[in-house]
Amino acid sequence: MPEMPEVQGLVEFLDERAVGSTITRANVTSISALKTYDPPFADLVGTSVSGVARHGKFVDIGCGAELHLVFHLAKAGWLRWYERLPETPIKLGRSPIALRVGLDDGSGFDLTEAGTKKSLAVYVVRDPQEIEGIARLGPDPLDAGFSRDALAALLAGRRTQIKGLLRDQSVIAGIGNAYSDEILHAARLSPYALAASLDEGEIDRLSEAMRETLREAVAAASGKPPADLKDAKRRGMRVHARAGEACPVCGDTVRSVFFADRSLEYCPACQTGGRILADRRLSRLLK
């Protein structure tokens, strides 16, 4: 799933490449992806791209003075950019393409989604806050106001495993499965530790790890075209999706815990005092 750094990379790319262009084509090819009906999707045609912003994992394309084309790529979605948009018609229901947008210089992009579980979401709104997923977002961890003390306040009293809390968009916006693994590894914290149980030193480490991990990932994504962002993300991972490999910090073997639709990765030596986590239900809650 694209997370904050990759989404920020897309935002910067689109802001540089598309702002000032006029939308000449806007086609929804997957009806399930479009979550709004007013304003009509067709109203995008003829508007000028006025700016591109990020809200958590949502991309917000300003269209003219009043409209916003907003999308969330979900687990298997992505943006495919073309300097020359294909003229080949898209067959409804027979293509991974959910949306196609063309600009007046001939360029444009598709939103694609792999797999059979279709979760990609597209909205046309007058105000991004009309979208429930945006309205309920917690603070952005890279905002200047998100301090160590602000993080401590979010953790206080929460009897929730820290891994799940980092992924909760209503608590902290933009972090998903991959970067929560990376942050917890950098902070030397078990994914099963309870948020409220962290001591002052552990909160210090978590705050620093969150800030540095995300800043480094955003910097690595900056300036890259969409086609290169996924590979850049994979190369930057130390533990996520690296089960069986050596931890780059201590050399111990990176381990996985599997769930129904995802897994988490961690280093026992760095994060759990050498103990192996069996699974979420049977393992002890570790500090």
UniProtKB/TrEMBL annotation:
Family that this chain belongs to: Belongs to the FPG family.
Q: Which reaction does it catalyse?
A: Hydrolysis of DNA containing ring-opened 7-methylguanine residues, releasing 2,6-diamino-4-hydroxy-5-(N-methyl)formamidopyrimidine; 2'-deoxyribonucleotide-(2'-deoxyribose 5'-phosphate)-2'-deoxyribonucleotide-DNA = a 3'-end 2'-deoxyribonucleotide-(2,3-dehydro-2,3-deoxyribose 5'-phosphate)-DNA + a 5'-end 5'-phospho-2'-deoxyribonucleoside-DNA + H(+)
FPG-type domain location: 238-272
For this entry, list what GO says about its biological process.
base-excision repair
Q: Which cofactor does it need?
A: Zn(2+)
- SMART domains in the cross-refs: Fapy_DNA_glyco, H2TH
Name the UniProt record assigns to this protein: Fpg/Nei family DNA glycosylase
**Residues in Formamidopyrimidine-DNA glycosylase catalytic domain copies:** 2-120
Q: Which keywords accompany this UniProt record?
A: DNA damage, DNA repair, DNA-binding, Glycosidase, Hydrolase, Lyase, Metal-binding, Multifunctional enzyme, Zinc, Zinc-finger
Single annotated GO MF: class I DNA-(apurinic or apyrimidinic site) endonuclease activity
Give the species this sequence originates from. Answer: Leucobacter chromiisoli
Q: Which domain of life is it from?
A: Bacteria
